[in-house]
Amino acid sequence: MASIGQIIFGSMICLIVVMSGIIVFILAIAFSVSQGTVESISPTTVGNLDDDVMLGCRFLSNTGNGQFSDVSITWLKDSVSGVVYEYKNKAAQLQTQNAQFSNRAQLFPDSISTGNASLLLRNIKLEDDGVYRCTVNAAKVSGTAIVTLRVAAFSAPTFTELTNGSLSAVATKWFPQPEVNWYNQSGQILNSSTSFFNIAGIIHVSSLLQDPVKENETYRCLIQNSLVVAVSEATVTAHKVAQSTYFIFNAASTKKSCLHLLVTVLILLYGVR
Q1: Contact at 8 Å (CB) between 112 and 126?
Q2: What DSSP letter does each residue of 235-250 carry, written as one string?
Q3: ∠ CA 86-92-93 to the nearest 5 degrees?
């Protein structure tokens, strides 16, 4: 039978354990409130070579996205020394900026106080491809968001009706090297031939629809690689070739095959008709 001393000792141990749990719980809540949220607006982004690209990052406290003061923002790139961009004490701090990003990176100072930590990267290069980390420290907010930038090259094709009645498509800027396929209005694949010219690492695409085209008929040309699909429509009229192009980005899973992408696009194009 336990003595009174043993009972008291056991009760004290139990009380200490319970109190410790309560303290840990309170600290966890306080820590959560103090950390807030730092998140990527688009975790994987596809940028077009030589164009500008936005790496989206925002932050907010757990009580709402209000006004912030005394904000510190640091952008880093994996496997690259120095910073991509650093903002502290209401000014850019570029003493340790990597030369790769000199005069090409910027934040948006006027909107930092409202939670905008996005980075604008100008005139992107192939070597800009990689993983970026946006770290924010402010009152009740502390954290890091990750953005993966995939750099591709893509351009809309220009269509021309040739004297023999065939239709050509020329796109001057693609990387990685794409596939090209032509379709009629019913979604049937058409006979075509395509040539690729590598100019300093960038692919020039020239594709020919071999079957004679019909007036007022619409033809679809898909140029696609692992990152981007260009969906183009060309309608031949008596006086011109009316054309339009839109792009679909495969940022979420760059390991998908081009065939998988093609099927997906065709479902989008023809499944709703």
Answers
A1: no
A2: EE-SS-EEEEEEEEE-
A3: 60
| CA distance to 13, 200, 264, 273, per residue, from 190 (Å) | 80, 31, 19, 20
What residue spans define the domains of the chain?
Answer: 37-152, 158-270
Domains 37-152 and 158-270 are alike in CATH topology: yes
**DSSP assignments along 142-163, one per residue:** EEEEEEEEEEEB----EEEE-T
Where does 37-152 sit in CATH, by number? 2.60.40.10
| 8 A C-beta contact, residue 178 and residue 227 | no
Report residue 95 CA to chain centroid gap: 28
- Answer for the pair 206, 194: CB distance below 8 angstroms, yes or no: yes
**Are 252 and 71 within 8 A, CB to CB?**
no
In the chain, which stretches have pLDDT less than 50? 7, 9, 18, 24-34, 253-256, 259, 263, 267, 271-273
* CATH 3.90.226.10 for domain 158-270: no
